[in-house]
C-alpha cells in the first residue's frame, strides 16, 4: 500500500469512527502527519497537526488525568508546534519562546492584536504575496516582529541570502544583534526547530550571519541604505526594509525623499533576484516615503499588500493594548494626540500621511 492509499484509509477511519478512543485517534493523526510530510503536502500536514493539537487540548481539559499522563500529553502538545514551526510562522513564534517567562515573551502578549499580520507574513513566505508593506506607530513591536520573521526564513533557506536595510547603521546593527541572539541563545528554540541550519559564521563588523556553511553571499547581511549595498550581497529569499525614513526633518524635505527613493529603488531593490520577496515595515512619515511610493506603484497588483495599523481603531480604542502591560493604552495615545499637531498625529500614529 503506497502513501496515498494509506492516507486515504486513515482519513476514512477518522471520519467513520467519530467516537474513536483518544490514544488511537492521536496515533492516526501522527501517522497522517508523517505521510503528508513525505508527500510534501504541507497544507494538509498542518491541517491534521492542528486537529491533533485540538484533540490534545480537549483531553488536557479533563480533570481525571494523572500527573504522568498530563506530562506526556503536554509534551505531545508542544511537539505539534515544533513539528509545524519550520512551515508555520505562528507555530515558530510560539515554540521558540516556550521556555521564556510569559511576561518576557514577545509573541504571546501580541497574538490577539497582530494575528492578521502574522497571516500576511505567512502568505508572503508561501508565495501568495511577493510584496508586503506594514505600517505601524513607533514602539509597537514592528522591528522585533521583522527580526523574528527573518530568522524563521533563514532557518528555512539557510543556503540562500537575505538582506536587511534601514535608514541608519544603529538600526541594522539591532537587526544583526537581534537575529544572532535568537539563533544562539538557548532560551530560544531555534536549533530545535532548524537542527540542519546551525550557525556557521558571523562577522560583527560587516553585520553578516551564515548558517549551515560559509558562503560568499551570507544567509543574512544587514546594511543601512547609506552604507553602500552594491556588491555587498544579492538577495534571494527576503529583501527586508525597516524604518527607511529617519524622522520628520527628512520627511518634510521632498528632495531628500526623492534621493531616498532613488537609493531604495536603485541600490536596494536591484539586489533582489527574480523570486525574492519584499517586506517593508515602518512608521509612515510622508506620502513620498518608500512604502507610499510602492503602494502607489503596485496598487492593482494582487500579489502586493499594504497594511496600515493605526494607533486607534474606528471606535477610538487602542489597537496596541497588549497583555502584560507591554503595549499602549487608549489613554496613552489620547494624551499623545492632545500634545501633537493634527498632521503629525495622523501621519505618525494613525498612518495617514498628508502632504505638507
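Q: What amino acid sequence fits the structure above?
A:
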Amino acid at each position: 500500500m503506497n502513501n496515498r492509499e494509506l492516507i486515504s484509509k486513515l482519513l476514512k477511519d477518522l471520519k467513520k469512527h467519530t467516537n474513536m478512543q483518544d490514544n488511537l485517534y492521536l496515533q492516526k493523526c501522527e501517522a497522517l502527519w508523517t505521510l503528508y510530510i513525505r508527500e510534501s503536502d504541507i497544507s494538509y500536514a498542518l491541517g491534521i497537526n492542528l486537529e491533533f493539537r485540538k484533540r490534545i487540548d480537549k483531553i488536557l481539559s479533563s480533570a481525571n488525568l494523572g500527573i504522568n499522563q498530563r506530562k506526556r500529553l503536554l509534551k505531545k502538545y508542544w511537539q505539534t508546534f515544533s513539528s509545524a514551526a519550520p512551515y508555520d510562522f505562528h507555530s515558530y513564534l510560539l515554540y521558540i519562546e516556550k521556555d521564556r517567562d510569559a511576561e518576557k515573551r514577545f509573541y504571546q502578549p501580541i497574538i490577539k492584536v497582530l494575528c492578521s499580520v502574522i497571516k500576511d507574513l505567512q502568505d508572503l513566505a508561501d508565495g501568495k504575496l511577493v510584496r508586503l508593506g506594514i505600517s505601524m506607530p513607533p514602539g509597537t513591536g514592528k522591528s522585533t516582529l521583522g527580526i523574528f520573521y527573518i530568522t524563521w526564513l533563514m532557518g528555512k533557506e539557510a543556503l540562500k541570502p537575505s538582506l536587511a536595510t534601514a535608514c541608519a547603521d544603529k538600526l541594522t546593527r539591532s537587526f544583526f544583534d537581534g537575529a544572532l541572539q535568537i539563533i544562539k541563545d538557548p532560551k530560544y528554540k531555534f536549533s530545535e526547530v532548524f537542527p540542519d541550519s546551525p550557525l556557521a559564521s558571523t562577522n560583527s563588523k560587516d553585520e553578516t550571519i551564515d548558517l549551515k556553511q560559509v558562503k560568499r553571499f551570507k544567509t543574512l547581511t544587514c546594511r543601512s541604505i547609506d552604507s553602500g549595498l552594491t556588491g555587498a550581497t544579492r538577495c534571494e529569499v527576503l529583501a527586508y526594509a525597516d524604518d527607511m525614513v529617519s524622522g520628520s526633518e527628512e520627511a518634510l524635505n521632498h528632495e531628500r525623499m526623492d534621493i531616498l527613493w532613488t537609493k531604495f529603488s536603485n541600490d536596494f531593490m536591484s539586489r533582489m533576484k527574480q523570486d525574492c520577496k519584499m517586506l517593508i515595515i515602518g512608521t509612515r512619515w510622508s506620502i513620498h516615503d518608500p512604502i507610499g511610493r510602492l503602494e502607489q506603484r503596485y496598487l492593482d497588483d494582487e500579489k502586493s499588500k499594504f497594511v496600515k495599523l493605526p494607533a486607534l481603531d474606528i471606535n477610538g480604542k487602542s489597537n496596541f493594548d497588549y497583555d502584560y502591560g507591554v503595549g499602549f493604552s487608549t489613554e496613552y495615545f489620547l494624551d499623545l494626540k492632545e500634545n501633537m499637531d493634527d498632521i503629525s498625529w495622523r501621519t505618525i500614529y494613525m498612518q495617514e500621511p498628508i502632504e505638507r
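Q: And what stands out in the fold?
A: The mean pLDDT is 91.
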